[in-house]
Structures are given as C-alpha cells and as structure tokens.
Amino acid sequence: MKPILILTMLLMGFSSCKSKKETTQTSNDEKQTTAVTNNEQMSAPQTKGKVSHQYRSGGCATVVIANVDGNTLTLIPSIKFVDKFDVDGLAIAFDYRPLKMHNPEGCNVGIPAEIINVTILK
Known about the structure:
The protein is of the alpha+beta class. The chain has one helix at 2-42; strands at 47-52, 63-68, 71-77, 91-98, 111-120.
C-alpha cells in the first residue's frame, strides 16, 4: 500500500511541474511577439516636421512642430538636439515616442517626446 501511495504522489508532482513549464514557455512566446510588434512600429514611416525656437522666451528650448494625422503636434525633445539639428526652421524626418514626464519649467506647450532617427530633409 505504501509503494502505491508514494508512486501516486510522485506522478502528481511530475505532472504539475510539466504544466508550469508550458506556461512559462507561453509567456516567453508572448514577450517575443510583443518585441516583434514594437520593432515593426519603430520601422513605420518617419514623421516630418520643423525645428522651432518660437517658444524659447516662454521657457521651452527647442521644439519640433509636426503635422500628424491632420493635427499640429508640438513635441519637446527629451534630449537636447545636436547643433546640426538645432537650427530654427530646419525640416526634419524622425521617429518619436511620447513620454510620461513633466514639461520643462516654464514650458506650457507641447508634449515631451523621445525623438530618434532624425534626418534632414532637403
């Protein structure tokens, strides 16, 4: 009787371990799918806009004014542009991601954003 009880417990233990491994594998697959989706979003067509210094007197440094889906969008770069991109009126193409952070002190317009893959338009 004792060997049957021990054998039953061992079988139950091994079967429960197997299902946990499958759950973990599913989670990894979901993460990989999410990563691929995020990479696809990053390779989307670049947004076009113009570098502007029009809000410098109000406390904003450089902003980028873009037309996204018919709406004018003012983006505040989270990191200062390199000098060759920080030219008032410069037409650029870029990718961006809105950030959940406060606007810089004294800057009441725009949305803080991570601006990457910047290229100068001719």
